[in-house]
Design brief:
With about 300 residues, the chain is of the alpha/beta class. It has 2 domains: about 35 residues, no CATH class; about 200 residues, Rossmann fold (3-Layer(aba) Sandwich), CATH 3.40.50. It has 12 helices and 7 strands. It has a 7-stranded parallel sheet, with helices on both faces. The structure holds guanosine-5'-triphosphate and magnesium ion (MG). The site of guanosine-5'-triphosphate has 21 residues, from helix 3. Guanosine-5'-triphosphate binds next to helix 3.
Length: about 300
């Protein structure tokens, strides 16, 4: 154990000095659930964390490639955490391939990491937070979290981001479904991608008319873009940079973060199976079980 801790410390030191290989190793340890003590970011510069979510195959990764190029032009270093990235099912390419494709010379300025939600009983919210903290400490100024909006918990992971872009495609209008899951409330901006194809404009109109915010100013803007042709991307980045989140949205984000961590704490407890068994046999009540697990 002591040896392990020393090892981690060395890795951390090396990652903080700029070793990408050791940063990768540490991220793997965090992903496996290991507790890596990351020092607080003492610099006054906080990273900007951008969440990109939306239904499978709408072009999120292609858009992320464009965002990377946009920030690179500004001289920013960009790290991407892609959660459950493209599967062959949706026909998308792995984000890493896409980024390599789009910005072959990304060099030291881009770091891409794919994460899986599988095999982690409590979800990845806690490890995601540590990973973001680590990237921030290692000087990655802009951090993107890409998550496929195919399950409620995956979507809500984006609540850990400072700003959130919700992406939809031309033939889906799936975002209307997302509204039911409370995702639209989290979005700072809604983007309908693939504006180069028929149907995109109609979807954008449908989304606009379906947004039901009592205060017009609270409603996120809806923007048409084409990640493939790189149109609308600059405008998207300007809008997101200057978007000001109303207090109620900030609070919803904090609420979601709390819920994610609460789930994580309960589901990753070593006593979970015992508590379930005890509730099942009637020896303890549900409330007792909850008390034990949340201790
Ligand atoms: N016509 C058109 N196709 C696009 C555009 N953006 C992405 N695509 C295509 O849409 C497909 C899916 O793109 P991805 O970027 O992998 O989509 P994704 O949302 O990241 O997919 P998942 O991660 O699997 O959910 C690919 O074949 C892209 O080439 C666009 O603006 N216009
Ligand atoms: Mg993707």
């Amino acid at each position: 154990m002591a040896l392990e801790l020393t090892g981690n410390k060395e890795l951390l030191g090396s990652a903080l000095r700029g070793s990408r290989r050791d940063l990768s190793r540490l991220l793997s340890l965090i992903e496996k659930g290991e507790d890596v003590a990351i020092p607080e970011n003492t610099s006054t510069k906080k990273s900007m964390i951008l969440g990109i979510t939306g239904p499978p195959g709408v072009g999120k990764s292609t858009l992320v490639g464009r965002i990377i190029s946009y920030w690179k032009k500004e001289g920013k270093r960009v790290a991407v955490l892609a959660i459950d990235p493209s599967s062959p099912r949706t026909g998308g390419a792995l984000l890493g391939d896409r980024v390599r494709m789009d910005s072959a010379d990304s060099g030291d300025h881009v770091f891409v990491r794919s994460l899986s939600t599988r095999g982690n009983p409590g979800g990845i919210s806690a490890s995601l937070m540590s990973m973001v903290k680590l990237l921030e400490s290692c000087g990655w100024e802009n951090i993107i979290i890409e998550t496929v909006g195919s399950g409620q918990s995956e979507i809500k992971i984006v609540a850990f981001a400072d700003k959130i872009i919700l992406v939809d495609g031309p033939d889906r209008g799936d975002i209307i479904q997302a509204e039911k899951a409370g995702i639209i409330e989290l979005a700072d901006l809604i983007v309908v991608n693939k504006s180069d194809t028929p149907g995109a404009l109609k979807v954008a109109e449908t989304i606009k008319s379906a947004l039901s915010f009592s205060n017009e100013n609270d409603s996120p803007q809806v923007l048409l873009v084409s990640a493939e042709r790189n149109t609308g991307v600059d405008e998207m980045m300007e809008l997101i940079r200057y978007s000001k989140s109303p207090i109620w949205r900030d609070r919803i984000k904090i609420r979601e973060r709390l819920l994610s961590l609460w789930d994580y704490r309960l589901l990753s407890s070593s006593q979970l199976n015992q508590v379930i068994e005890d509730i099942e046999t009637g020896s303890i009540s549900l409330e007792d079980g909850l008390d034990i697990l949340s201790r």
